[in-house]
């Protein structure tokens, strides 16, 4: 991919059907000033959120079989932060001048690029993505790399937590059918020519130490453990190996409760940890993630409150980019940190030495 193949901002802008403001310039420091807002009273100057959820680019299930390529599957509970991580990823790839980046969706539907433009624009203006609606699956492909590094075509799936957590038995599954993931997701996971990597997203705000944690405690652990068993099991996706990055999301809210992300995962994921440690078929890394500084603005016109990103922090998303790129290409992006063997990997090596 040459420098010339990078889409110019103007070209990207023209693809947006209902744009309400300029797209952040590529190369601008995230967290630094986003596009200048027009003068005038604060209320009038505020950019609207682009309603990308209305765009017509849903997976209809007719073309999943036979797919190939590099796919990142982001899983986690409802509201854990999956879409925020994915849109931060696209925003950062888009705006980091050290990276060559382009949209590479193959089916020619302009709504795909418009959707990603909407994400870039929304997060650039401090808006979190809308919560993903259950039953609506979207697929995207982007391509990124550097002039002296291979270009990575990366596909990913946007799916709601509701469609993932159905894998966990509830005890109320009265019809006798085993609990299942969203059907489309299952079909992607069973495609043999798709190279798969996984982000397991944990909601840090539910794992704050203290009283309110009790209700949620270990439910993510059960979800993650069930998913890992599904991915590896012969009655599930039947994968030979699982390469996963466990992400402690909303780290800004929880970091003062734990000495490190290592302590976070050790405290909250005993069952998942046991499964990871007991097999050499899972390669696990882990990291904290935060979009940056978040304020809750209230009340809104509807009486609720809304969270806004007031300063973006690129260090977490850069680590994520490093992991994705290294994991798929075995190469390192220039200027990005090297992803080291993690604590979980080391523990596994220790168990392996014991003959476990
Ligand atoms: N403080 C803080 N809040 C966050 C962060 N990421 C997400 N949130 C909050 O969590 C909410 C849910 O995040 P989403 O990214 O929509 O979560 P999701 O996993 O995609 O949710 P579903 O699509 O409903 O499954 C956001 O609207 C924010 O209010 C973060 O890094 N820091
Ligand atoms: Mg979502």
What topology does this entry show?
Layout (H helix, E strand, L loop, with lengths): L8 H6 L27 H4 L23 E8 L5 H14 L4 E4 L6 H15 L13 E8 L6 E7 L3 H4 L17 H7 L4 E10 L9 H4 L2 H14 L9 E8 L1 H4 L6 H8 L1 H8 L4 E7 L3 E6 L8 E7 L1 H16 L13 H11 L3
Parallel strand pairs: 1-4, 1-5, 5-6, 6-7
Antiparallel strand pairs: 2-3, 3-4, 8-9
The structure holds guanosine-5'-triphosphate and magnesium ion (MG).
Description of the molecule:
The protein is α/β, with parallel strands linked by helices. It has one domain (3-17, 68-353): Rossmann fold. Helix content is 32%, strand content 18%. The strands form two sheets. A seven-stranded mixed sheet has the order 2-3-4-1-5-6-7, with helices on both faces. A hairpin with an 8-residue loop joins strand 8 and strand 9 (306-312). The protein is globular, with a radius of gyration of 20 Å. 38% of the residues are buried.
Keywords:
single chain; 356 residues; alpha/beta; Rossmann fold; seven-stranded mixed β-sheet; two-stranded antiparallel ribbon; 13 helices; 32% helix; disordered N terminus; binds guanosine-5'-triphosphate; binds magnesium ion
């Amino acid at each position: 991919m040459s420098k010339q193949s990078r889409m110019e901002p103007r070209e990207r802008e023209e693809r947006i059907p209902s744009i309400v403001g300029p797209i952040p310039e590529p190369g601008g420091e995230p967290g630094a000033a986003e596009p200048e807002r027009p003068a005038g009273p604060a209320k009038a100057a505020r950019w609207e959120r682009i309603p990308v959820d209305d765009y017509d680019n849903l997976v209809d299930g007719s073309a999943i079989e036979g797919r190939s390529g590099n796919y990142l599957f982001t899983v986690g509970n409802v509201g854990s932060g999956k879409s925020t991580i994915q849109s931060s990823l696209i925003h950062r790839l888009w705006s980091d001048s050290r990276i060559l980046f382009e949209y590479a969706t193959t089916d020619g539907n302009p709504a795909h690029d418009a959707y990603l433009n909407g994400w870039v624009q929304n997060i650039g203006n401090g808006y979190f993505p809308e919560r993903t609606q259950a039953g609506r699956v979207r697929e995207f492909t982007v391509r990124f790399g550097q002039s002296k590094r291979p270009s990575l075509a990366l596909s990913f799936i946007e799916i709601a937590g509701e469609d993932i957590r159905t894998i966990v038995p509830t005890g109320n599954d009265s019809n006798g059918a085993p609990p299942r993931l969203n059907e489309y997701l299952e079909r992607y996971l069973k495609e043999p020519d798709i190279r798969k990597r996984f982000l397991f997203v944990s909601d840090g705000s539910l794992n704050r130490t203290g009283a309110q944690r009790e209700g949620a405690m270990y439910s993510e652990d059960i979800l993650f453990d069930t998913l890992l068993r599904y991915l590896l099991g012969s009655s599930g996706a039947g994968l030979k190996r699982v390469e996963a990055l466990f992400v402690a999301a909303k780290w800004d809210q929880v970091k003062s409760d734990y000495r490190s992300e290592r302590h976070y995962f050790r405290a909250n994921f005993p069952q998942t940890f046991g499964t990871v440690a007991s097999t050499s078929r899972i390669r696990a890394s882990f990291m904290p993630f935060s979009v940056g500084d978040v304020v809750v603005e209230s009340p809104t016109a509807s009486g609720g409150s809304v969270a806004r990103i007031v300063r973006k922090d690129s260090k977490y998303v850069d680590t994520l980019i490093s992991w994705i790129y290294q994991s798929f290409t075995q190469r390192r992006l220039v200027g990005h940190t090297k992803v080291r063997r993690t604590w979980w990997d080391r523990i596994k090596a220790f168990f392996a030495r014991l003959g476990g």
